[in-house]
Amino acid sequence: MRAGIATEGVSFRYGRKEVLNDVGFSVERGRFAALLGPNGAGKSTLFGLLTRLFTTPEGRIEIAGQDMRKTPRAALARMGVVFQSTTLDLDLTIRQNLRYFAALHGLSGRAAEARIDAALERLAIADRAGERARGLNGGHRRRTEIARALIHDPEVLLLDEPTVGLDAAARAGITDHVHRLCADEGLTVLWATHLTDEVADTDRLIVLHEGRIHADGEAREIRGAQDLRTCFLKMTGADEASA
Ligand SMILES: Nc1ncnc2c1ncn2[C@@H]1O[C@H](COP(=O)(O)OP(=O)(O)OP(=O)(O)O)[C@@H](O)[C@H]1O
């Protein structure tokens, strides 16, 4: 079976500074994978490579079976992305934000509206569709961005620290929601975070530290008898509370 996301031997430098070193992992389709690492581990850099914001000659990246170097358009078409900083137009309504994005994907008219309605339903924000983004709280802005990332029906969803700046309730709400999307709809998810409480025991867990993978497997197996926070602290020396 093709993997949802696969990387092999990926390395990257900013000038002479190496920030990713031989990163390789593969996430089965329909799996929620947490990419856990302290600040500066290289998570955003890896996301930049996965989304082709930049490229590297070292290593291979595949999204839903499409090689990022050989067939970048096909790879990107199968991917939805939620970046760390929010990118909504705050003067537009939720629906207008989604409509604009649908148009970028060549969708318009009834087909676009049907996709927009479905995406809003999936994120439980259909009743807010007519509200301007500026009036929404952080949690609802994030839901809007996730809905927007799903409009073109991607197979893979990448989220770079999507709960940054949210309160505990909104954070738990978004984390649960994306776990459910994964379980119900077979979406492959890569969720970057530095917070261990966003990782469920049954999730696939990839621990990135100083540009290298330090652990890769099911979260429950990696943590063993200790809690994940303690395990993460021992592995990286980073106390997430101060991260
Ligand atoms: N444009 C850049 N030029 C030089 N160094 C950079 C650049 N961007 C990031 N870095 C460095 O690369 C390393 C990895 O950064 P990156 O942002 O990928 O980590 P991260 O795990 O996403 O951390 P954070 O959670 O803080 O975003 C850090 O040491 C960072 O200082």
From TrEMBL:
Gene3D superfamilies, from UniProt?
Answer: P-loop containing nucleotide triphosphate hydrolases
Q: Which domain of life is it from?
A: Bacteria
> What SMART domains does this protein's entry cite?
AAA
- Cytoplasm: present as a keyword of the record? no
Q: Mind listing the UniProt keywords for this protein, alphabetically?
A: ATP-binding, Nodulation, Nucleotide-binding, Transport
Question: Which PROSITE patterns does this UniProt record tie to the protein?
Answer: ABC_TRANSPORTER_2
GO molecular function annotations of the record? ATP binding; ATP hydrolysis activity
Q: Which residues form the ABC transporter domain?
A: 5-235
Q: Which NCBIfam families match?
A: PQQ_ABC_ATP
| Protein family | Belongs to the ABC transporter superfamily.
What is this protein's record name? ABC-2 type transport system ATP-binding protein
The organism that produces this protein has a lineage beginning with: Bacteria, Pseudomonadati, Pseudomonadota, Alphaproteobacteria, Rhodobacterales
